Amino acid sequence: MFFLHNLERTVTLHPSFFGPRTKEYLTTRLLEDVEGTCTGQYYIICVLDSFLISEGRVVPGSGVAEYTIQYRAVVWRPFKGETVDAIVTSVNQMGVFADVGPLPVFVSNHLIPPDIKWDPNATPPQYTDNKDQVIEKGTHLRIKLIGTRSDVGSMFAIGSVKEDFLGSDPLILGRLLEPYDVALHGP
User: Running DSSP on this structure, what letter comes out for residue 23?
Assistant: First the structure.
């Protein structure tokens, strides 16, 4: 789920960057350091703005200055029970690995419907029901998150496709895969 958070970060700046463009350097440094990172609890997707930059404090002995920046950011935190869309990155007999944006998800073969079987002889190897459902590398899946695990700078999740309206059914994901036609549907 996406949230808007007020966050704070301390940024150090070398004396060569002191001058009339200091705030610009600080904002650029904040964007480079923070956007696209994982805190272990959530992913920082985008920094919207920095609304308070403190006065610089010179660190004794080094000459660099520390600035505390308060900023607003869009963050994404995956929750247990949340349904997400993923792209399969690898398939093996143990299950399926997929990416939900920056979050890696594993779907065990026990959490795949029993009618979808592992077919190692197919090219590429895949899970299939020999009809319309095929799970292979590059397949778009709708997954329900069973649980998440957090480390210091990363997250990992376990998912399931065993419930209704989950999996790789083209009817479920058809709107996701087809381009939106403005001529037919209007702006």
Answer: H
Kindly state the average pLDDT of the residues 23-41.
93
Q: Is the pTM above the cut of 0.90?
A: no
Q: How far apart are CA 88 and CA 106, in angstroms?
A: 10
Per DSSP, helices labelled H in 52-164 are none
Among 4-8, 13-17, 182-186, name the one with the lowest average pLDDT: 182-186
Q: Tell me the C-alpha distance between 8 and 81, whole Å.
A: 30
Distance between CA 65 and CA 62 in Å, rounded? 9
* Residue 84, both tokens: 């997400």
Burial 105-143 (b: 16+ CB within 10 A, else e): bbbeeebbeeebebbeeeeeebbbbeeebbbbeebbbbb
Q: What is the mean pLDDT of residues 127-140?
A: 90
Distance CA 99, CA 76 (A): 14
